[in-house]
Amino acid sequence: MKKLIIGAAIGAGMVYIVRKLQEEGFLDELSNNMDNIANKAKKNFNKAFNKTKYEAENLKENIQNEFQE
To answer: What keywords sit in the KW lines (predicted)?
Structure first.
């Protein structure tokens, strides 16, 4: 029973803290920062994927040209 009361108190405290952060706009800024980070990571992944794909196509063409000669 003691653990249940402690858990409920901790949960209520966390809800209070999150609500205060939300009222101050901190969570909006954090959300925007996380969104920017995710967009940059996605862009970098797409660049790396496209470059790898381009290199693989070039390698394939070079191999085909070598066997055709």
So the answer is: Coiled coil
| pLDDT tens by residue, 9-54 | 999 999 999 898 888 888 888 888 999 999 999 999 999 999 999 9
DSSP conformation class of 25: T
- CA separation, residue 12 to residues 9, 22, 23, 27, 69 (Å): 5, 15, 17, 18, 75
The pTM of the full predicted model, rounded to 2 decimals, is: 0.55
> How far apart, in Å, are the Cα atoms of 69 and each of 58, 60, 66?
17, 15, 6
Number of residues written out for the chain? 69
Say which residues have a Cβ less than 8 Å from residue 1's Cβ, sequence separation at least 6.
Answer: none
Give the up-direction half-sphere exposure of residue 26: CA atoms within 13 A in the CB hemisphere: 8
